[in-house]
């Protein structure tokens, strides 16, 4: 938030609220995404599925955060989006890499014999 013009003291409460929202959204989104995978009988998480997962997660979090930024900082939608853009890009890459590593350490429950390394 410092990079977008806010100060640390003003940004700490909103950072805590966004963190809590992200944890809750993470649980909801991943539960739904894994249920979708089970219904579709996804054998492995391909490169495309990982991209869809990361973009969907960050897109949902964006929809949660924009109104929060607008209310907390008293800014327009455009300014709130600009504030979120830097964080969004960082966490989009982070989410993609984290799930890629996670999927290679912990296989899908019904696919213990499948090695999830192909992209």
Structural topology:
Elements: H1 8-39, H2 47-73, H3 77-105
Helix pairs in contact: 1-2, 2-3
Q: Which features characterize this protein?
A:
single chain, 119 residues, mainly alpha, disordered C terminus
- Provide the structure class: mainly alpha
The pLDDT mean sits at 82
The DSSP helix count reads 3
Number of strands: 0
Quick overview:
With 119 residues, the protein is mainly alpha-helical.
Question: How would you describe this protein?
Answer:
By secondary structure, this protein is an all-alpha fold. It has one domain (2-105). It is built from three helices and no strands. The chain has helices at residues 8-39, 47-73, 77-105. Helix 1 (8-39) runs antiparallel to helix 2 and helix 2 runs antiparallel to helix 3. It is elongated and about 45 Å long. The relative contact order is 0.13. The model is unreliable at 112-119 (pLDDT under 50).
